[in-house]
Specification:
InterPro entries: Bifunc_Mopterin-bd, MoaB/Mog-like_dom_sf, MoaB/Mog_dom, MobA-like_NTP_Trfase, Nucleotide-diphossugar_trans. The chain has 545 residues and is of the alpha/beta class. The chain is 27% helix and 26% strand. The longest helix is centred in the middle third of the chain and has 15 residues, at 181-195.
Length: 545
């Protein structure tokens, strides 16, 4: 492939290397230039264009990406169509993603222009989550290199996907006078939630004293229950394991089982015990597993639910990447009923009121100051959020912020000025999520301040759906299947949102976060915003300042 500038008149049949904006429209990068394109470029006064000229044996980027992705024929996944040299690969079931670093690295070393990126090895994923992407860097690559990459992965396993299978889980919980029954109840509830993605369930729970003999007796009883045998036994001890001969590992041995490992190099999760009674795996859960935060217990549990049988060798190899403590960007499971502090799932709100309202006309009235029912629109929107019970409500201001903030005076809303509002929506999302009150919520409802038809009822329905999902779903307002606004983003997406740049929203994060998406139809209100003076009047508003 030859790359570089050529006279426009001789560029027919070449691939355009950089997009061109002309009076008659845009010619995107990657376009094979036709006589009509050449004529339009020349009319635009452009004498030279940067192009790629194919040589014998070259393959276009989309064809190359498609060929490599098709060779990655992995069960339980689907591929996107090739576009701009990229094919994305998605999971079609809940399960565990397994990557072979050696194969992936070998493919990426065939040619710098042929790349394969995946999520981390042994990552738990939900159906619809992106797990890998094939990207061709240049506009064309040598077909011999593409074939070498395809040949490498064809019949081998660059990555695989192991769907979860349902497990019957028996829970044995030990008790001490200092351990409240409510804590044991919450622990059982949280374990049930962790099992949901695999369609597994706790079919039996035994509560016994924190004593080796009693735990051993419970293990024998559970494991020997005929046709009611469990696929997995989980033990939650009332006291942390302090020694390989402590109550839980000693009880596993006393019941006729074996102990595979006591302790793991994952923090939190150090004090996990792994053993088995016959073919039934037994996990002695560390104390941190009483929390919904990701910990070593999740790592072992997910492997077992996906059909693996972790060994001592596997566990002792988990140290790299095993430092999980105080890493806020990692998505975490949430208790669907209560947080670990016993409080309901919390939802705050961001009211985006920083836009420049360019379509209102140069020097024209500000749409957010238009009166609806005698109340300025921005104030009306804030009061709607408050009436729906959202706390805190943070209004992000920018254009004419002094007037907007004055209009919100006396309302229980925190205003935050975005000095970069001219760069687009992303900066307002980042500014709002940096507000301490919102950043600590389980979720945040993001609402544009210029949507007069959104009501308290609409917002309450969305919040109810979010709470019913335990704070672990994206909730979108839609109408007739078309997405609109507002939207509720769970805490697991916050760190990704803070990295957004430019005039973009959170759509790409929503589509790639791997969390369930719940659509709530709120009628035409999902699409009614007032960007022009005519739209303000049509929606029932009266133009003001």
């Amino acid at each position: 492939m030859q790359f570089g500038p050529v006279p426009t008149e001789s560029a027919e049949g070449c691939i355009l290397a950089h997009s061109l904006r002309l009076a008659g429209g845009r010619i995107p990068k990657g376009t094979i230039l036709t006589p009509d394109h050449i004529e339009a470029i020349e009319k635009g006064g452009i004498e030279n264009v940067t192009v790629c000229r194919l040589e014998p044996g070259d393959m276009l980027e989309d064809d190359a990406a498609r060929a490599v992705a098709q060779a990655l024929d992995t069960p339980h996944t689907r591929r996107s169509e090739a576009t701009t040299g990229r094919v994305n690969i998605y999971a079609t079931e809940n399960g565990l993603f397994i990557a072979d670093r050696t194969t992936v690295d070998s493919l990426n070393r065939i040619d710098p222009g042929i790349t394969l990126a995946t999520i981390a090895d042994h990552s738990p994923v939900t159906a619809g989550a992106m797990v890998a992407t094939v990207k061709i860097i240049p506009l064309a690559v040598a077909s011999s290199k593409v074939e070498a990459a395809a040949q490498l992965v064809r019949g081998s396993t660059a990555f695989s996907f192991r769907p979860y299978r349902p497990h019957r889980v028996a829970l044995i919980a030990t008790a001490l006078p200092t351990l409240k029954p409510s804590v044991m109840d919450r622990t059982a509830r949280l374990l049930a939630q962790r099992l949901e993605p695999s369609r597994s369930s706790v079919y039996r729970e035994e509560r016994v004293a924190h004593d080796t003999g009693e735990v051993a007796a419970a293990l024998v009883d559970v494991a020997a229950s005929g046709g009611e045998q469990p696929d997995l036994i989980v033990i939650f001890g009332a006291s942390a394991v302090a020694d390989p001969d402590d109550v839980i590992p000693a009880a596993i041995r006393a019941s006729g089982g074996r102990v595979e490992q006591v302790g793991m190099p994952v923090d939190p999760g150090n004090l996990l015990v792994l053993g088995a009674i016959g073919d039934i795996p037994v996990i002695g859960a560390p104390g941190c597993a009483r929390s919904p935060k990701e910990n070593g217990f999740d790592w072992i549990l997910n492997r077992i639910l996906a059909g693996e049988r972790p060994t001592s060798f596997d566990i002792t190899g988990m140290g790299v990447g095993g430092l999980l403590m105080e890493i806020p960007e990692r998505p975490r499971p949430r208790d669907a009923v209560q947080s670990t502090e016993g409080e309901a799932v919390t939802v705050g709100a961001l009211l985006l009121a920083a836009g420049q309202a360019r379509r209102m006309g140069e020097g024209g009235p500000h749409k957010l100051l238009a009166s609806f029912g005698g109340v300025p629109l921005v104030r009306r929107s804030a009061e709607t959020l408050l009436a729906a019970g959202l706390r805190p409500v943070v209004a992000v201001t920018g254009h004419r912020h002094e007037k907007i903030e004055a209009t919100l005076a006396g309302v229980d809303v925190k205003t935050v000025f975005n000095p970069y509002y001219a760069s687009g929506m992303a900066s307002s999302l980042v500014t709002g999520l940096s507000s301490h009150g919102v950043s600590s919520c389980d979720g945040v409802l993001v609402m544009l301040a210029d949507m007069p038809a959104v009501t308290v009822t609409h917002i309450s329905r969305m919040v109810e759906a979010f709470r019913n999902a335990g704070g672990q779903a994206v909730v979108r307002a839609v109408h007739d299947g078309k997405r609109g606004n507002p939207i509720i983003l769970p805490h697991a997406t916050f760190e990704a949102v803070r990295k957004l740049q430019g005039d973009v929203g959170a759509r790409s994060i929503v589509e790639n976060c791997g969390l369930p998406i719940i659509d709530i139809d709120i009628g035409r209100a999902a699409h009614i915003d007032v960007d022009t003076p005519e739209a303000v009047v049509a929606a029932g508003g009266i133009l003001g300042d």
